[in-house]
């Protein structure tokens, strides 16, 4: 089972900031900014390539909740990052969205 599935099941501890029946959001172990949350669907979807008509509701749901989660962390301005595949830097092969903020963003790719 992948590390995020273990976190979802509670087998690996994490600092959860939001949870419902479709998703969980918890603090990144190695934060790159004062706020660095991972928003993760409870369905094991490997990466963005695997989003389809059957599971896209999980992605939609995460995006419906991101503003609320950011607000709970005291921010309304943030960057959302998804890495898909090894070349893009994906290290955990369970779809997740980085919610990063709490500081002025520096160098940017886009
Ligand atoms: P990726 O590189 O796949 O886009 O992002 C994976 C993220 O998961 C990394 O930022 C890494 O710090 C985080 N991470 C990896 N393992 C754990 C863990 O066991 N707990 C938490 N909270 N974060 C993790
Ligand atoms: Zn998983």
Task: Characterize this entry briefly.
The chain is an alpha+beta fold and 110 residues long. The protein is 22% helix and 23% strand.
Can you put this structure into words, describing what you see?
The chain is an alpha+beta fold and 110 residues long. It is built from two helices and five strands, in the order αβββαββ. It has a five-stranded antiparallel sheet with strand order 1-2-3-5-4, with helices on one face. A hairpin with a 7-residue loop joins strand 2 and strand 3.
How large is the radius of gyration?
A: 13 Å
Q: How much helical structure, as a percent, in the residues?
A: 10-25%
SS summary, helix count: 2
Strand content: 15-25%
Q: Strands of the biggest beta sheet: in what spatial order?
A: 1-2-3-5-4
* Average of per-residue pLDDT values: 96
Question: How would the blueprint of this fold be written?
Answer:
Elements: H1 3-9, E1 16-19, E2 23-27, E3 35-41, H2 56-72, E4 78-81, E5 97-101
Antiparallel strand pairs: 1-2, 2-3, 3-5, 4-5
What tags apply to this protein structure?
110 residues, 5-stranded antiparallel sheet, binds zinc ion, alpha+beta, binds guanosine-5'-monophosphate, globular, single chain
